[in-house]
Design brief:
transmembrane; DUF229; 32 helices; disordered N terminus; 34 strands; transmembrane helix; alpha+beta; membrane; Alkaline_phosphatase_core_sf
C-alpha cells in the first residue's frame, strides 16, 4: 500500500513537471510573438488617418512625413537568434524526455494509456512549436535579440542604463550609481524596474528582492532547469517566472498593430505601463504596484457633490435655479442650420477645384500665408479672383470660393510643416539623449476653451455632449482606456476674458501684466516675442520638443494687447474670421446661427485641430483653441456646438485609442456669461464666477504619472481651482514624456516662482489643501463664490442695515439716470430690510467689520427684493478691500459710525432675489442699455406714451414691440390654442404688451401704425383693422359690436394664456416652442 502511494506521488510529480514544461513552451511562443509584433510595428509604414476622423473635409497632407529619429543600437545576426532558440528547444526536449522516462518507469498499468496521450501531444506540440518558431525567427529584430543573448559586461550595462532611464526624473544624479548597481544583477540583460512591464513592446521583468528570487528558483526547480549563468538558461528561467506571474494575473499577451484602419484589439493588460526606476528620483521612495490601481470615473452631474466636509471653500449655490433659467432662456426648438451641404469646390493635392454649374461665375480668394498670420483687428486684404482651372493654394491654409452671389463657401486646412516637425523631433531627441532614453512616448495636450460658458450652463445646454461623456467615458466604450474628471469649483479670476486667459496663458495676473505691457506698441513684435518666450504656455511646450498650435476664433482685439499681434506658434488660426467678415459679411456677434459659408463658425477650428493631430502623428503636440459661440446675450448660440463637440471628443478618443500616444484633453471656459439679464439674480452672478473644467486622460498616462495621480485628481476636483493651477499643470505636463511627476523638486518649484503661482498646484501631483480660499487663488472677497455668512438680527444691526440699504438704492437710481433708462425703469425708494447676514474678514480686528449681505424691499413695488452686498472696514483698510469701478459700474461709498466703531462701507454687488418678473427679464435681453439687475421695470400699464416722444424713448417702444409675435385668434379660443396653431407657445409676460392699445397702435408715431399682426392665415396691418374704440374687459382682444371692431383691454393683474371669452378674438403674444431645460 505504501508503495502504491509513493508511486502515485511520483506520477503526480511527473505530470506536474510535464504541464510546467508545456506552460514554458507556451510562454516561449508568446515571447517570440511579442518580439515579432514589436518588429512589425517598428518597420510598418505610416498610415494616413481614416477619413472618418474628419467631419466635413478630406484635406491633403501633401504626403510629407516627419523625419525619423534613429537610435544607436547593435546589429545582430539571425544565426545568433537561431542558436539561442535552438538551445531553448533543446532544454525543453530534455525536460520533456526526463518527464517521460519517469512516467514510463512508474507504473506498467498506466504506461500504455499515458504514453499514447503523451506521444500524441508531444508530436502535435513539437510540430506546432517548431513551425511557429521558424516562422517567427524570420521577423525577430536583431537588435532586440542581442539584448537577450549578449553576455558581455559592456553590453549589459548599456542595455540596463537604457531601459532603467526610460522614465527617469530630470534629476539624474543617481544615474551612475544605478548603472553600477545594475551591473551586478544576476539577470543582467533585463530591466531592473520593480514590476513586470512593457517597454518598446518587449516583455521584461526585473527580479530584485529575495521573495522574487525564491519564486524564480522555485519555478526553475519545478521545471527541472539547472541553475546556470548561461544567458539561455537565464532566459528560460525568466519565461518560467513569467508563467508563474501569468497564473496569478491572467495576463493577456496579445498586442495590437499600429494600423489606423484596422479593427484592433486593445491591450487591456494591467501591466502595459512602463514604471520609472525609483533610484533615479531625487526623492527616492518605494513604489507599490501602480499597475493594479483601479481608475474609475464618476458620472457627470450638474450638482457638485462635495464628499469632504473639511473643505472650506464651498459655494452656497452653484447658479440659477431651473425656474430662473427657464425665465431667462427661451430657446426655441427649431434646428439651427447653415444651409445645404452641397459643396461648390473640392480640395485635393493642395489645390481647389470648383464646380459652379448653373450657379453663376466661379471665383476664389486665398488667405494669408501662415508666417504673416496675426490676431486682433488688423485689416484684411482679401479679394476675389476668377476661377478657370484647378488652382494650387500654395502655403495658404484657408480660402474662399463663390458661385455668383448665391453660394459662398470657405475652407481651412492644417498643412504639415517640415521645419516645425524637424525642430520638435530634434529637440525631443536631444532631451532623450541627455536622459539616456531610448525613446519617449508622444504626448498630446489639447486645451479647448469656450468663452462665457458657466459649469451650470454647460450641463444645461450641451446635453448631447454631457450624455456622450457619461455614456462613453465615465462608462461604456472608452471607459477602460480613458478617465474624466469634473472640476466642480473651477473659479474665475475676473468677470470677463482677459483676467482669466492671462493667468492661463502667461501665469500672471491681468493687472500685473497690463502694467508690464503698458505703453508697448502692438507693432513692436520683438517686445511681445520676448514676453511670449519668457511666459507663454506655447513657448514652454515648444522648448520641450512639442509642435504647437494656437486657434483664436474671434475678431476681438483684446488679447493682442496682452501678447501682441503675432502669436509665435507653429500654426495659428485667426485671420479666417476677419476675411469672412470682409468677404461674406460674417457677424460673430449674432445671437442666431454663426455661419461661414455652409458650415458653422466653430466647425472649421474643430476640424483643423483634428488635422493638426493627424499630420503630426508620433510627435509631441500642444494646441490651444478658443471658441466664441458662448459669448452672446441669449446663451443659446452655444447649442450649435453641442453635436459637433460630442463628435469631436469621440474622434479624438477614437484616434488615441488606436495610436501609441498619450492624451490630455482639457475642456474649460474662461468665465460664465455676464451680459444681458444673466446677473439679474444672484445665481447668475455665481455662474459668472464658476466656469467649467473637464480633464480627460488616458489611464495609461494616469498610472505613469504616479500611484497617487488618480487619487490626487479626484481630490482636487472637489476643491476650488483657478487658471493659475491650470497654467502650472500644463507646464508640468510638458515634461511628462521624459520623466515621472514628483512634487517638491527644483524643477517643479521653478514653475511656481511667480508670486501668484506660489500657492498654485499641478492638479496631477499636488493635493490642494482643504483650507484653500478665494484669497489663495488671488481673488478678492467680492469676487468669490464661497461665502460663509451668518444670519444676524435686523434689529441689532438696524443702523448699519439702514445705511447699507439706502446706499444701495441710491446706487440703483444713479445708474438708471446715467444710462438714460428712466422711461423703462422706475425711480426707487427703500422699503424694509428683511434680512441681514455677516461674514468676518480674516485679519480685521474690528468686531463689526466684514462683508454684509442684505435683502431689501422697494416701496410701492411689491414683490421686488434686492440683495445688496457691501463691505464695512476701518478707513485705513479700505484701499485693500474696496472694489474699483470698471466698465461703467458704480460702487458707492459712505462713512458711518456703528456701535462706537468708525467704518467705511462700500456697495460691491446688487442682484435680484425675487423670481416673479418675467417682463423685466425680457426687457433686459438687449432693450435696456444698463444693468437689468438695477431696474424695476415699468410695465406697459405704466407707459405714458405721448403722440410725440424723443428719439431714445421712441426707439425703446419700437424694440418692445419686437419682443413679441402678435397673433389674433378666433372667437372663443384661448391664446394657448391660438399659438399652438402657429406651432408656437403663448408668452404670458407678452400679454402685457398686447393689453396696451397705445403700443399696438404706435401712438408715439401719432397713431400711424405700420405694425403687422398675424391673423386668419396671413398678416394684416394693425391700422387696417379699423378699431373704433377701447373697452374694458377680461382679456386683450377684439370684439364686434354693431359691426364695429373695438379693442378690449383686460384686467392688468389677470392676464393668462388659457383665458377665453366666447365673443372675443384674443390678441396673443406667441413665441417659438421652447426647449425643456434640464
Amino acid at each position: 500500500m505504501l508503495y502504491s502511494w509513493k508511486k502515485a506521488l511520483k506520477l503526480q510529480a511527473s505530470f506536474l513537471a510535464f504541464f510546467v514544461a508545456i506552460i514554458l513552451f507556451w510562454m516561449l511562443a508568446i515571447y517570440v510573438d511579442v518580439q515579432s509584433i514589436s518588429d512589425t510595428e517598428e518597420n510598418a509604414a505610416e498610415e494616413p488617418v481614416s477619413s472618418e476622423f474628419l467631419q466635413f473635409s478630406n484635406p491633403d497632407r501633401r504626403e510629407k512625413t516627419s523625419p525619423e529619429i534613429s537610435f544607436d543600437g547593435n546589429q545582430n545576426k539571425t544565426e545568433n537568434s537561431e542558436n539561442v532558440y535552438a538551445e531553448l528547444i533543446q532544454n525543453f526536449n530534455s525536460t520533456f524526455n526526463k518527464t517521460s522516462q519517469e512516467i514510463e518507469s512508474s507504473s506498467p498499468n498506466m504506461q500504455e494509456h499515458s504514453q499514447n496521450n503523451i506521444e500524441e501531444n508531444r508530436e502535435k506540440e513539437a510540430s506546432k512549436g517548431n513551425d511557429f518558431l521558424s516562422n517567427k525567427l524570420m521577423n525577430i529584430s536583431s537588435s532586440q535579440m542581442i539584448n537577450k543573448s549578449s553576455s558581455t559586461e559592456e553590453e549589459n550595462m548599456k542595455s540596463q542604463n537604457t531601459e532603467t532611464n526610460k522614465s527617469s526624473e530630470f534629476d539624474y544624479s543617481g544615474l551612475a550609481e544605478a548603472a553600477e548597481k545594475n551591473e551586478t544583477q544576476s539577470l543582467s540583460n533585463f530591466n531592473t524596474s520593480d514590476h513586470f512591464n512593457f517597454q518598446n513592446n518587449s516583455a521584461v521583468i526585473g527580479i530584485e528582492d529575495n521573495e522574487e528570487k525564491k519564486l524564480l528558483n522555485k519555478t526553475k526547480n519545478n521545471a527541472g532547469i539547472a541553475d546556470s549563468k548561461d544567458n539561455n538558461a537565464t532566459s528560460l528561467s525568466v519565461l518560467a517566472d513569467i508563467a508563474e506571474v501569468n497564473s496569478m494575473t491572467s495576463f493577456n499577451s496579445s498586442l495590437p498593430l499600429k494600423n489606423e484602419f484596422s479593427e484592433i484589439q486593445k491591450d487591456t493588460s494591467p501591466y502595459s505601463i512602463s514604471q520609472p526606476d525609483a533610484s533615479l528620483s531625487e526623492n527616492k521612495q518605494e513604489e507599490p504596484d501602480e499597475t493594479h490601481i483601479e481608475i474609475t470615473s464618476e458620472q457627470l452631474s450638474p450638482g457638485a457633490i462635495i464628499k469632504n466636509p473639511e473643505i472650506k471653500c464651498k459655494p452656497h449655490i452653484l447658479g440659477l435655479t431651473k425656474k430662473q433659467a427657464s425665465t431667462i432662456f427661451r430657446f426655441n426648438k427649431r434646428k439651427f442650420s447653415c444651409g445645404d451641404d452641397y459643396d461648390i469646390f473640392s480640395y485635393k493635392d493642395n489645390a481647389i477645384r470648383m464646380d459652379c454649374a448653373f450657379h453663376g461665375k466661379a471665383e476664389f480668394s486665398l488667405g494669408s500665408l501662415p508666417e504673416v498670420e496675426t490676431i486682433g483687428s488688423a485689416p484684411s486684404s482679401q479679394s476675389w479672383h476668377e476661377y478657370s482651372s484647378p488652382t494650387d493654394t500654395g502655403g495658404s491654409e484657408f480660402g474662399f470660393a463663390k458661385c455668383g452671389e448665391s453660394k459662398k463657401q470657405a475652407f481651412l486646412h492644417n498643412k504639415f510643416s517640415e521645419s516645425a516637425s524637424r525642430r520638435a523631433q530634434e529637440k525631443r531627441k536631444s532631451i532623450e539623449s541627455s536622459l539616456n532614453l531610448t525613446s519617449s512616448k508622444p504626448l498630446t495636450v489639447l486645451t479647448v476653451v469656450f468663452d462665457s460658458v458657466s459649469r451650470q450652463h454647460f450641463y444645461r445646454i450641451l446635453t448631447k455632449t454631457v450624455d456622450y461623456m457619461n455614456q462613453n467615458i465615465a462608462k461604456g466604450k472608452f471607459s477602460k482606456e480613458f478617465a474624466i474628471y469634473d472640476f466642480k469649483i473651477e473659479h474665475a479670476s475676473g468677470e470677463n476674458t482677459l483676467p482669466n486667459v492671462v493667468p492661463l496663458l502667461l501665469g500672471e495676473s491681468y493687472d500685473n501684466h497690463k502694467d508690464k505691457v503698458r505703453g508697448s506698441s502692438l507693432s513692436n513684435s520683438e517686445r511681445f516675442k520676448s514676453i511670449q518666450q519668457e511666459h507663454s504656455i506655447w513657448k514652454h511646450f515648444e522648448d520641450q520638443g512639442f509642435v504647437t498650435m494656437f486657434g483664436w476664433e474671434t475678431k476681438w482685439d483684446y488679447l493682442s494687447k496682452m501678447v501682441g499681434r503675432k502669436v509665435w506658434t507653429d500654426h495659428v488660426v485667426s485671420r479666417l474670421y476677419f476675411a469672412a467678415a470682409n468677404l461674406f459679411g460674417f457677424a460673430e456677434e449674432s445671437d442666431r446661427e454663426r455661419c461661414i459659408g455652409n458650415h458653422f463658425q466653430h466647425q472649421y477650428l474643430l476640424n483643423y485641430t483634428k488635422e493638426f493631430i493627424r499630420n503630426y502623428k508620433d510627435h509631441n503636440k500642444y494646441a490651444y483653441t478658443h471658441f466664441s459661440s458662448g459669448h452672446e446675450k441669449t446663451g443659446s448660440v452655444i447649442r450649435t456646438m453641442d453635436s459637433d463637440l460630442a463628435s469631436y471628443i469621440n474622434d479624438i478618443l477614437e484616434y488615441y485609442s488606436q495610436n501609441e500616444e498619450d492624451l490630455v484633453l482639457i475642456l474649460t471656459s474662461d468665465h460664465g456669461l455676464h451680459v444681458g439679464p444673466w446677473d439679474t439674480y444672484e445665481g447668475g452672478k455665481i455662474e459668472n464666477l464658476l466656469p467649467y473644467s473637464f480633464y480627460i486622460l488616458n489611464k495609461e498616462l494616469i498610472k505613469k504619472l504616479g500611484k497617487n495621480t488618480h487619487e490626487t485628481l479626484t481630490h482636487n476636483a472637489e476643491h476650488i481651482t483657478s487658471k493659475y493651477d491650470m497654467h502650472v499643470s500644463l507646464k508640468y505636463l510638458a515634461y511628462t514624456p521624459y520623466q515621472k511627476h514628483i512634487k517638491d523638486t527644483p524643477l517643479y518649484n521653478s514653475l511656481k516662482s511667480k508670486p501668484l503661482l506660489k500657492k498654485a498646484v499641478s492638479v496631477f501631483i499636488e493635493k490642494i489643501p482643504d483650507n484653500r480660499t478665494c484669497g489663495d487663488i488671488g481673488n478678492p472677497n467680492y469676487w468669490c463664490a464661497c461665502r460663509n455668512f451668518e444670519d444676524k438680527s435686523v434689529t441689532d444691526y438696524e443702523e448699519l442695515a439702514e445705511s447699507v440699504g439706502q446706499l444701495g438704492i441710491s446706487q440703483i437710481n444713479e445708474r438708471v439716470a446715467r444710462d438714460k433708462m428712466q422711461y423703462s425703469c422706475a425711480s426707487l425708494e427703500l422699503g424694509k430690510v428683511i434680512g441681514i447676514k455677516h461674514e468676518p474678514i480674516p485679519g480685521l480686528s474690528y468686531l463689526y467689520s466684514g462683508i454684509y449681505s442684505l435683502n431689501v424691499t422697494i416701496k410701492e413695488h411689491l414683490g421686488y427684493i434686492f440683495t445688496i452686498q457691501a463691505i464695512a472696514v476701518p478707513e485705513w483698510e479700505y484701499g485693500k478691500y474696496s472694489r474699483s469701478p470698471f466698465e461703467g459700474e458704480i460702487f458707492k461709498m459712505s462713512d458711518i459710525k456703528f456701535k462706537d466703531q468708525q467704518l467705511r462701507i462700500q456697495v460691491q454687488s446688487i442682484v435680484r432675489a425675487d423670481e416673479n418678473n418675467d417682463y423685466c427679464i425680457e426687457l433686459g435681453k438687449g432693450l435696456i442699455g444698463g444693468k437689468i439687475s438695477y431696474c424695476v421695470c415699468k410695465t406697459p400699464k405704466d407707459y405714458e406714451i405721448a403722440p410725440k416722444t424723443g428719439h431714445s424713448e421712441k426707439k425703446f417702444y419700437e424694440n418692445v414691440m419686437k419682443l413679441v409675435y402678435p397673433t389674433i385668434g378666433k372667437e372663443g379660443t384661448s391664446c394657448d390654442e391660438t399659438c399652438k396653431t402657429k406651432d408656437r407657445d403663448c408668452q404670458e409676460w407678452g400679454l402685457q404688451i398686447m393689453n396696451n392699445f397705445d403700443l399696438l397702435s404706435q401712438q408715439w408715431n401719432g397713431g400711424v401704425s405700420t405694425y403687422s399682426i398675424a391673423m386668419d392665415g396671413g398678416f394684416k396691418d394693425f391700422k387696417k383693422l379699423q378699431i373704433m374704440g377701447v373697452d374694458r374687459g377680461e382679456m386683450p382682444g377684439l370684439r364686434k359690436i354693431n359691426k364695429e371692431t373695438r379693442f378690449v383691454q383686460g384686467n392688468w393683474t389677470d392676464l393668462y394664456c388659457d383665458s377665453k371669452i366666447s365673443d372675443i378674438r384674443p390678441i396673443c403674444s406667441c413665441s417659438r416652442h421652447q426647449v425643456e431645460l434640464r
